[in-house]
Amino acid sequence: MARAVLVPLWLCWALGCAAPPNVVLLLMDDMGWGDLGAFGEPSKETPNLDQMASEGMLFLDFYAANPLCSPSRAALLTGRLPVRNGFYTTNAHARNAYTPQDIVGGIQDSEILLPELLKKAGYTNKIIGKWHLGHRPQFHPLKHGFDEWFGSPNCHFGPYDNRALPNIPVYRDWEMIGRYYEDFKIDLRTGEANLTQIYLQEALDFISKQQASQQPFFLYWAIDATHAPVYASKHFLGTSQRGRYGDAVREIDDSVGKILKHLQKLGISENTFVFFTSDNGAALISAPKQGGSNGPFLCGKQTTFEGGMREPAIAWWPGHIPAGSVSRQLGSVMDLFTTSLSLVGLQPPSDRQIDGIDLLPAILQGKLIDRPIFYYRGNEMMAVRVGLYKAHYWTWSNSWEDYSKGIDFCPGQNVSGVTTHLQEEHSTLPLLFHLGRDPGEKYPLSLQLHPSSPAASPTFHVVSWSSEQCQMHIMNPA
Amino acid sequence: MARAVLVPLWLCWALGCAAPPNVVLLLMDDMGWGDLGAFGEPSKETPNLDQMASEGMLFLDFYAANPLCSPSRAALLTGRLPVRNGFYTTNAHARNAYTPQDIVGGIQDSEILLPELLKKAGYTNKIIGKWHLGHRPQFHPLKHGFDEWFGSPNCHFGPYDNRALPNIPVYRDWEMIGRYYEDFKIDLRTGEANLTQIYLQEALDFISKQQASQQPFFLYWAIDATHAPVYASKHFLGTSQRGRYGDAVREIDDSVGKILKHLQKLGISENTFVFFTSDNGAALISAPKQGGSNGPFLCGKQTTFEGGMREPAIAWWPGHIPAGSVSRQLGSVMDLFTTSLSLVGLQPPSDRQIDGIDLLPAILQGKLIDRPIFYYRGNEMMAVRVGLYKAHYWTWSNSWEDYSKGIDFCPGQNVSGVTTHLQEEHSTLPLLFHLGRDPGEKYPLSLQLHPSSPAASPTFHVVSWSSEQCQMHIMNPA
C-alpha cells in the first residue's frame, strides 16, 4: 500500500513490480441511493454491503451518466456521455434512449469498450447479467471485448406470447440457452426466481477459474433483481421488512458478501478492485412494491433531479483503500472506465473525448478532483453540478398526459416550479440549488446576475456558459 | 459483561456486585432522524456520533413522545405521555402544548421526575441547557430532583426589548446569572454564539467533579444549538457543507466526541450509560437555513407523521453494549425514564401509569419487546404504530390559514389525503401504512374490513380498537 502511494499504480504495473489487479464491477439495476443501510435506509437490511463500506470507501456523491439504464450502461463501458457514444434519441426533446426488444440499434463498432482495452492487457472479461446495448448479433457483448457472457440483452420483461413478441433470451456466450419465464422461471405472482443465485454462482465459478489459471480478469456483474418486476429466490422471499423489493435487495446483499468472501478465501482480495453502484435512481413509478428508495433526494429514475441520478457507491480493495473512508469526490459511472484502465496501467484512448476521470487519486490518496457532473435527458443537458451547486437549465418530471394516467416520477413530492410537468427552460437564468444545504432540491436560490451589494446570503455570477462545450463556471463574489 | 447477561443488572446492583452506572442523556433540540451520517445525511459530517454508533447501538425506530419540545421533555423526565403528565392543551383540538416565556403553568409537583428517584439512590443530578417545563419558581428544576442547573427555562428566543418581554434568563442553580443576547451573546446575523462550548465545559467539569468524589451521577445535557435561530461558535462557523444548521451539528458532534473521550480518559466509560436522541423531528418550517433533515420521512416537527417524531438514537456503554449493533426495538424518550431506573436498580412508581418501558433487554440482549407507539398532538391521539403498521386516526399538517401565510410543515411534500390542511378524522376506517415497505407514508394501504377473498396484496382486519385504552390490534389474514 505504501508503495502504491509512492509510485503511480500504472507505473508500478508497467515496471512489473506487482501484478495488475482484477476488476469487479457490481452494477445494480434501478437501485436507489437510499436503498442501503450505509446510506440511511430505515430498515438497515444490508449488513454485507454496509460491511463492504466499512472495509472500503463510501462515495456520497456518485452519479449515473443518465437516469435510464441503456445510456448509463453504454456510458460506463465507453467512459463517454451518451451524447457521444450514441445512446440518445432525437425523435422528441429530452427523451432518454431505451433499447426495447425490437430495437435495431445498439452500441457502435466505432466505440471502444472497457473490455476491449483490458483484453489487450491480457485480461479475461466476463459479463454476467444484463447487457442492454443492443439485441442484434453485431451488438453481442463478445463482439465488443467480452470473452464470456451469461445473461440477457434486456430486462426480464414479460412473459410474452412468443408470437408477436418472443420472451427475452438468455445467453451463454454465443449460444442462446433459453428464455425468461420459459427456461428461466420467474413467478410474477409470488416473485420467486432463482436468477440471482444463478448469477452469483456464475461469478464465483468465473473467479475460481481465473484464480486457478492465474489470469487477471474483469467481471461485470450486471444483475437485475431490483428492476421491476422484482424477484428473489425462495430462501429470501418474505425476509425483508420492505416487502418484495427488500427481499431482492437482501439476496443481492448476501450475494455481494459471498463474492467478497470468495475473493478473500482465494487470497486475491488484495489484488482485486471491487466497485458497487447502480445504473440509475430508484424507479419510483414502481414503488413501493417494486421500486426502491432515493433517500432524501427529489424524484427518481427518468429525471435529472438527484433522485434520478445519485447512486449508492462503494469501492473495496483491502490493503489499498483505507477501511471505513468516505469520499465526497463527485464521481460518475463513466469514471469506472478510466479508473479501471488506470488500475491496469493503460491510458484511455486519445483519439476521442473521454468523459470519465481517473478516480484513483480520490480512492487511494483521498484527493478531491475538481470536475462537473452533467445531467442529461436524451440529448438535452438538463442540469450541471459544480461543487455543491447545481444549476437546472431545464426542469421536467413527466408530461401532464402521462401524469394524468397515474405515472408519477416524484410520488408524494411536489416542488413548485421545479418538478414541472411541462418542459420548462431556464437557460437564461438557471434554477440554482445548493446541494449541501438543500440536498432535496426544495429551495431554489435566488440568482442575481448583477448583485448590487454583498448580502448575508450568497449570490452568484454565472460568468460563462456554453452548452456546446458542456462547461459552466459559477463564481461566488462573497 | 457476561455477568450482566446472566444476572439482571438491577439485581446485580442491589446485591452490591457492581456500582450502579452513571447515566448521561444527551438530548438534542429539533434535530431530525436524517441529520446524522449514520442515518444517511448526505454530507456525512458527524464522525463522532457515527463512531458512537459503531461502538454502541443504533436505534432505527426510536420516537419522541410528542412532536413538540415541552411535552416531549416532560414525558422523558416523567416516563409518562403528555396526556398523563399534564403537558397538553384543551383550548383547541390537536394543539401541542408549548411553554412560552409568559406561561403560568409547568410541571406539577405531583409528577415524579427521574432525578427525584435517582437522588434517593444517591445520585447527583445535573441539567445543562434547556428545561422547558415552566418558568415560575415552583417549576424550577432544583425543585424537581435536580441538584445543579446551568441553562435556561426556554429556548434562546429573542432578542426582546426587556420591557414588554425580558430576554430569556440563564441560571446557575438557583441564581439567575444573566440573559441571552445580553450576558450570553448570540449574533443573529452571523450565527455566532459560544453557548455549546459553555455547555460542553459544564458537562466535562461536572463529570470530573463527580468522578473525583466517586459519586454516581445523572447528567441531562439538553442543549439547543439546533433550534432556530441556530448558532455555532466561531471555530465551527462556515465549516459545514450544510450551512449554519450544519455548523451547529458539527459543533455538537465534536462536543459529544469530547464527552465520550472524557469518560474514557477518566476510566468511567464502562460504568456510564450514555444515550443520544432528540426531542422531536426537524423543524422544516426553519429549513433549509435553520432547520434539519428528517431523511426519507414525511413532514416534520409539530406533526404526527414519521418526520415529526422519529428520532436519531444511539446507546453507548462500552463493555456492555455490543459494538456496532442495530436495534429495531420500538423505543420512546419515555423509555429513558424506566431504563435509567432499571440501570440503577430502581422500580418505577407503582401508584401511577408509566408509559416508558425498560429497554435494557433490547439493549443488552438484543430482545424485541412488543409495544405500540402513540402519536399525539395535544390531547388527541392522532396515530398508533404496532409493529410495522401505522394507523392514522386523524391527519393534519397545519391549517389552510397558516399554510397560506407560508408556514409549511411538509415543504416539497404532498401526499393526497394524508398531509391534509383540514383536520380529517379516520377513526372509523384508519388510514393504514406499512412503514417497512413505505417509510415515507406515501401509499396508504386499502383497508378492507371484510375482505371477500385472499388477495396478492395484504389485507387487514382491525379486530379491536379502543381509543380509551389506547390499544389496537391488527391481524393479517394472509
From TrEMBL, chains A, B:
Its EC number is 3.1.6.4. InterPro entries: Alkaline_phosphatase_core_sf, GALNS, Sulfatase, Sulfatase_CS, Sulfatase_N. Glycans are attached at N194, N414. Keywords: Calcium, Disulfide bond, Glycoprotein, Hydrolase, Lysosome, Metal-binding, Signal. It catalyses: Hydrolysis of the 6-sulfate groups of the N-acetyl-D-galactosamine 6-sulfate units of chondroitin sulfate and of the D-galactose 6-sulfate units of keratan sulfate. Gene3D superfamilies: 3.30.1120.10, Alkaline Phosphatase, subunit A (3.40.720.10). It is found in: Lysosome. Binds 1 Ca(2+) ion per subunit. One of its GO terms (cellular component) is lysosome. Residues 21-345 form the Sulfatase N-terminal domain. One of its GO terms (molecular function) is metal ion binding. CDD domains: GALNS. The modification 3-oxoalanine (Cys) is found at C69. The active site is at C69 (nucleophile), H132. The keyword Cell cycle does not apply. The keyword Transmembrane does not apply. Pfam families: Sulfatase, Sulfatase_C. Ca(2+) binds at D29, D30, C69, D279, N280. Its cofactor is Ca(2+). Its main location: other. Residues 1-18 form the signal peptide. Belongs to the sulfatase family. Homodimer. PANTHER family: ARYLSULFATASE FAMILY MEMBER, N-ACETYLGALACTOSAMINE-6-SULFATASE. This is N-acetylgalactosamine-6-sulfatase. It comes from Gallus gallus (Chicken). The gene is GALNS.
